[in-house]
Amino acid sequence: MKVNLNLAVVSLCCVIVVVMRVSSKNMMRAVQFREPGGPENLYIGEVERPVPGKGEVLIKVKATAINRADTLQRKGLYPVPAGVTDILGLEAAGEISEIGPGCNQRWKVGDRVMALLAGGGNAEYVSSPEGQVMPIPSTLDFPQAAAIPEVWVTAFQLLHAIGKVMAGETVLIHGGASGVGTAAIQLCVQAGARPLVTAGSAVKLETTRNLGAVGNFNYKEDDVVAEVMRATNGKGVNIVLDCVGGSMYETNINVLGMDGRWVVYGLMGGGNVNGDLLRKVLAKRLSITGTTLRSRSLQYKEQLVQDFSRLALPLFENRTFRPVIHTLFPLAEIGRAHELMEDNLNTGKIILQVEESTGKEEL
Ligand SMILES: NC(=O)c1ccc[n+]([C@@H]2O[C@H](COP(=O)([O-])OP(=O)(O)OC[C@H]3O[C@@H](n4cnc5c(N)ncnc54)[C@H](OP(=O)(O)O)[C@@H]3O)[C@@H](O)[C@H]2O)c1
Asked: What span is annotated as the signal peptide, if there is one (predicted)?
């Protein structure tokens, strides 16, 4: 009887160990927040590892990044699109660890990839539609790759798909030292257009100048309208890439030339306009287009990612383009990363390292 009891206890222990092994295999670390609010609410929690659905691949994340949308979501000001995980993170770089059902064999386990995500990147694993995954150029490590999907694909969309930039045109880029701005400057130069930028400090403007911006204006000190008109011989710019909105609207209507295109993709300066906006829109035949990327259809995002992969990735491979990184934090320091971004201190991207290895230590 005693022997039987001992056997029962041993068997129970074995079952518990097996169950723990299985369940820990299905768990992962991910950025979580207790309730909407400040960066102090962020923590690393244990959650279930995603299972790749039809047409999806699972990525073992080595590096990811933060974006303004994450800070807004954390504050409860950015509703997660329907059907999307509420884990933060719009981009990630790592290795394919599993192929979901119905994939078209484009990827295999172990491939080095980066992905444009609707969410879920700030975690050890993320599931992504296979069409939103891109190969990492051989010249880049994981943190550099994690700096690309969201801001570079956005900038590519703003300039080409929406702004229809043409060689010889002039583009004014607000937030020139931001993640999107540093990408947009390089894409502009490559398109044969002239980038002018605004930013809020001399240090940031030094970086934008080095990236190829031909006019670099401090919107806190300079008369931006006068400077832009001087830089364009009084003609004004063809395109404004505007992530500021309300506080910059007068500048924008004054610097845009005839038939100018005003692309609104962020509202860091608020959404209110209060003045005779439409008179100049009419007189200059301006067009105003608002755009968001996260909420676009799968099909739209996949096409954009394919276009970007074809036209822009080779230029990372030959080092014409370079992702601009401000800081690398371990994933656990997610709160500090959000603070840095909300204090407007970053030039380029803030990266989170999920694993210490960069995957290319020699770079
Ligand atoms: N619509 C889309 O699909 C889409 C996609 C991605 C990003 N976005 C938007 O694009 C913008 C840039 O994103 P990001 O991740 O590249 O940003 P980021 O790296 O955090 O940089 C944003 C920079 O903008 C400047 N800024 C902040 N508030 C400002 C204001 N009121 N007036 C003028 N400049 C201001 C700050 O630099 P200074 O020191 O120069 O002031 C700040 O560092 C955000 O608004 C984001 O939401 C939109």
From this structure: 1-24
